[in-house]
Design a protein that fits this description.
Elements: E1 2-9, H1 16-24, E2 42-48, E3 51-57, H2 67-79, E4 85-91, H3 98-110, E5 114-119, H4 126-139, E6 144-147, H5 156-165, E7 168-169, H6 184-200, E8 209-217, E9 221-230, H7 235-240, H8 245-262, E10 265-274, H9 282-287
Helix pairs in contact: 6-8
């Protein structure tokens, strides 16, 4: 059996998490229109009869404005090390810019085996796509250049087949039915954060974190107590909403996803606490799991 580790890197909103979910055929990474939604390296697993792919989804590489942002970039840089293949996913509908040039220099320095994954090809006409691919070929000698649409799941079979050719014979690292190495509590808090991002739009998405304080998985019901952390007093009433309307909506939408995922009733209790300027405090980042590097 072949097996190997593949890091998925790129700028915010390039489609990394959408690609990961499509490749493992299950939602294990939250997806929103908001940049820097992914905050951890999320490991997804796809097992075929003769190959196991271990994908590492990373936070979008960006110019950091606080300590949390710097830590997220480090997650992405660390993921480039000691993997068999790096997928650099770029948005075909966006012009090449300084951010892309910055990522390319990082990749050159890493000496990694880099596949350029040109995503969102469904947004381009055929001639536009050809021009885009020609321009990318001039910038670097990539191991492979593969155009895809992660959202529409176009050309993913080709991507997997080509990737398999670059993997070595090895061991099966995870059980065949395992889709992610993260514990259930990780998905609980990520789903809550996803619903907060969708409901609050641009008001507070980057200022919020979630802690699962307790969960009990019974035969017919899942009981979860979760704490939502914000960094300013003014943000707490936004999360709660008038007469509790916002936090109620967040809870309802999260429960729907969890009940579909686990096939049982879910009781979700949400609480809100202010932790001033938590994104710039190393001790708070450590408590929330945003400064641990392997």
């Amino acid at each position: 059996m072949k097996s190997g580790f593949i890091a998925i890197i790129g700028r915010p909103n390039a489609g990394k998490s959408t690609l990961l979910n499509a490749l493992v055929e299950q939602k294990i990474a939250i997806v929103t229109p908001t940049a820097q939604t992914t905050r951890n390296n999320i490991q997804g697993i796809r097992t075929e009869e003769d190959c196991q792919f271990i994908f590492i989804d990373t936070p979008g590489i960006h110019k950091p404005k606080h300590q949390l942002g710097s830590n997220l970039n480090r997650y992405a840089y660390n993921a480039m090390q000691d993997v068999d293949v790096v997928y650099w996913i770029v948005d075909a509908s966006e012009q090449y810019g300084n951010g892309d040039a910055y990522v390319l220099e990082k990749l050159k320095a890493s000496h990694a085996k880099v596949f350029l994954i040109v995503n969102k090809i469904d947004l381009l006409e055929k001639n536009e796509l050809m021009e885009c691919l020609i321009e990318w070929e001039k910038r670097y000698q990539f191991i492979e250049i593969i155009p895809i649409s992660a959202l529409k799941q176009h050309n993913l079979k080709t991507l997997l087949a080509v990737t398999k050719n670059h993997l070595e014979e090895g061991v099966q690292y995870f059980p065949a039915n395992m889709k992610s190495d993260h514990p259930q509590s990780f998905m609980f808090k990520e789903l809550i954060r996803e619903k907060i991002i969708f409901q609050t739009k641009e008001e507070i998405p980057h200022s919020v974190a979630v802690i699962i304080e307790k969960f009990v998985d019974k035969k017919e019901v899942l009981v979860i107590d979760a704490l939502i952390i914000v960094e300013r007093k003014s943000q707490k009433p936004i999360i709660i909403g008038k007469n509790g309307s916002m936090i109620k909506t967040i809870g309802i939408n999260t429960r729907k996803d969890l009940e579909l995922m686990f096939g049982k009733n879910v009781y979700l209790n949400l609480f809100v606490r202010v932790e001033e300027n938590w994104r710039n405090k190393e001790n708070k980042l450590k408590d929330l799991g945003y400064n641990e590097f392997e």
